[in-house]
Write a structure and sequence with these properties.
Blueprint (H helix, E strand, L loop, with lengths): L11 H5 L2 H11 L3 E5 L2 E10 L3 E6 L14 E6 L3 E6 L6
Antiparallel strand pairs: 1-2, 1-5, 2-3, 3-4
């Protein structure tokens, strides 16, 4: 979604940058994110971005040993339902 014309003191880059551009940046970086969405809170990596939704791959994370591994799941979430996105802080670094 482009910034509205009423946003104060925006540069040309900020005015033309869409939320999908930001999601594509997250997808290319492979960062694990916490996505707070109308459909609930989800942790995962953005694996695809489309016009009105994006795919978030969750699970499949290496834990301390193989018993902690969960199967990977891909969720399709509408862009309009995103409330907040933050970088996930793993406990096991």
């Amino acid at each position: 979604m482009p910034l509205s014309a009423s946003a104060p003191n925006t540069t040309d880059v900020e005015h033309k940058l869409s939320f999908n551009h930001v999601l594509r940046g997250f997808a290319s970086s492979g960062l694990r994110l916490v996505v707070e969405h109308d459909a609930g809170a989800h942790i995962g990596s953005v694996c695809a971005v489309y016009a009105d939704h994006f795919d978030l791959e969750s699970g499949g994370v290496q834990g301390v040993d193989q018993r902690d591994r969960t199967p990977a799941t891909v969720l399709s979430l509408p862009v309009m339902g995103v409330r907040k996105i933050s970088i996930h802080r793993d406990l096991w670094v």
